[in-house]
């Protein structure tokens, strides 16, 4: 018995240190949250001054007093100039787009976190539940290796042998280091944030040196183990956060009288603020049976979801139900960014097989589109042989001549057309 427990523990430790678990799930979480925040910033661009800038109801003086008491992090309090605000907002948009694409992800994830925390902590009463989720996940994503697949970093590693290849990474981290140094010297960074940014900067510098000069050495292997541990811990925290959100939401709903009698959903459907489609809200609210089923179903799914993780099939069914529920909230109640944030968080539990299948289908569709484009223009695809070009059939010196074999005119069993990728 002791040997079995010891062996299982050893295998778990080896798995946690030897690989970054859930590479596809972490990529979907990265893409989901980066896209959600990017779309939000772009939609609210005309209202940015009222939300987070100098024209907002939460004035500079109020924000300064609150941040002095809770020590929240925001670079918007480093200066009250309009140019600084516009620069931070533009940097947040750029960091979100780069994180979405997976370009220099370690640095852009830090910039993404800085942008999210800076804007949200500047005006703390402007957000909703979706903003709180983005706030937390922006911090957790810094710990993860979320660009192992479906990213420009993965493409660079595949083509050039290393994701750190090129001079863009060192230049970017040099600029970040200069900004952090300015914040520290000016007294804008507290001890906790100064320590966190220093560790990030020093750790990335050590990783770059080891990856460049000792790619197969012991130091590089040690850093890889530490990176895997941080990644797996970050993914575990994200999963636990999702479970905590649903568990607390479900159990608090149970205590509410409107949720107990099955009428809770009726009231937001009658509020103008939550009725982007009044006719649809009237149809839903007009059926007492539909309101009751949706109300009780929401509570049941949220309470049961953390326990469903012990059974893969039940978990997948409830996960699909939760995602459909959030899609319904986006359409019915007009909360698209909250729903997108929750769907992105739910993606940490998506089965790997489904994600691999989707990735293969997307890659196949992309290859087919490129093939059709090449056929339409007459330009062959990069790396593909030109049409009507036969392979070299000349025999090697000293070898007997080969007899050419006619190619079959119809499709060969077991082969796929070029368009399938």
Summarize the structure.
This protein has helices spanning 2-18, 23-43, 48-51, 60-70, 82-101, 105-122, 129-141, 152-160, 168-185, 191-213, 218-254, 257-260, 266-269, 278-285, 288-308, 312-332, 336-346, 352-377. By secondary structure, the chain is mostly helical.
Q: Number of helix segments?
A: 18
Between the first and last Cα atoms, what is the distance in angstroms? 49 Å
Q: Sum up the overall morphology in one term.
A: globular
Task: Report the β-strand fraction as a percent range.
Answer: under 5%
Can you offer a commentary on this structure?
The chain is mainly α and 421 residues long. The protein contains 18 helices and no strands. It has helices at residues 2-18, 23-43, 48-51, 60-70, 82-101, 105-122, 129-141, 152-160, 168-185, 191-213, 218-254, 257-260, 266-269, 278-285, 288-308, 312-332, 336-346, 352-377. Helix 6 (105-122) runs antiparallel to helix 7. The longest helix has 37 residues, at 218-254. The protein is globular. It starts with a helix and ends in a 44-residue tail after the last helix. Mean pLDDT is 85; it is low at 380-421.
Fold topology:
Blueprint: H1 2-18, H2 23-43, H3 48-51, H4 60-70, H5 82-101, H6 105-122, H7 129-141, H8 152-160, H9 168-185, H10 191-213, H11 218-254, H12 257-260, H13 266-269, H14 278-285, H15 288-308, H16 312-332, H17 336-346, H18 352-377
Helix pairs in contact: 2-5, 2-7, 2-17, 5-6, 6-7, 7-17, 9-10, 11-15, 15-16, 16-17
């Amino acid at each position: 018995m002791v040997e079995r427990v010891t062996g299982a523990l050893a295998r778990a430790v080896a798995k946690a240190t030897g690989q970054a678990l859930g590479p596809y799930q972490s990529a979907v979480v990265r893409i989901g949250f980066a896209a959600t925040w990017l779309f939000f910033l772009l939609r609210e661009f005309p209202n940015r001054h009222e939300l987070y800038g100098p024209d907002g109801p939460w004035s500079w003086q109020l924000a300064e007093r609150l941040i002095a008491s809770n020590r929240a992090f925001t670079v918007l309090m480093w200066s009250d100039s309009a140019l600084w605000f516009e620069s931070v907002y533009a940097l947040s948009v750029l960091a979100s787009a780069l994180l979405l694409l997976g370009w220099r992800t370690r640095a852009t994830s830090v910039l993404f976190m800085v942008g999210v925390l800076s804007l949200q902590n500047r005006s703390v009463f402007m957000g909703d539940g979706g903003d709180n989720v983005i706030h937390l996940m922006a911090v957790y994503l810094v710990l993860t290796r979320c660009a192992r697949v479906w990213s420009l970093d993965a493409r660079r590693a595949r083509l050039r042998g290393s994701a750190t290849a090129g001079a863009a990474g060192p230049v970017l981290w040099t600029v970040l280091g200069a900004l952090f140094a300015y914040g520290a010297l000016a007294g804008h960074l507290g001890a906790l944030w100064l320590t966190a940014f220093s560790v990030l900067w020093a750790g990335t510098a050590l990783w770059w040196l080891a990856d460049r000069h000792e790619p197969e050495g012991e130091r590089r292997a040690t850093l890889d183990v530490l990176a895997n541990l941080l990644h797996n811990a970050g993914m575990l925290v994200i999963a636990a956060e999702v479970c905590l959100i649903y568990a607390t939401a479900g159990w608090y709903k149970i205590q509410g009288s409107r949720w107990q009698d099955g009428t809770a959903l009726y009231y937001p459907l009658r509020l103008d603020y939550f009725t982007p489609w009044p006719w649809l809200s009237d149809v839903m609210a007009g059926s007492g049976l539909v309101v009751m089923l949706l109300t009780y179903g929401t509570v049941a799914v949220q309470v049961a979801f953390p326990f469903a993780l012990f059974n893969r099939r039940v978990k997948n069914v409830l996960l699909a139900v939760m995602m459909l529920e959030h899609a319904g909230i986006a359409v019915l109640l007009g909360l698209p960014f909250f729903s997108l944030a929750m769907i992105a968080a739910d993606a940490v539990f998506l089965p790997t097989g489904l994600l691999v299948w989707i990735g293969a289908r997307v890659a196949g569709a992309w290859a087919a589109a490129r093939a059709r484009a090449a056929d339409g223009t007459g330009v062959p695809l990069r790396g593909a042989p030109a049409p009507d070009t036969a392979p070299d059939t000349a025999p090697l010196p000293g070898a007997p001549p080969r007899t050419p074999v006619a190619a079959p005119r119809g499709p060969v069993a077991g082969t796929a057309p070029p368009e399938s990728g």
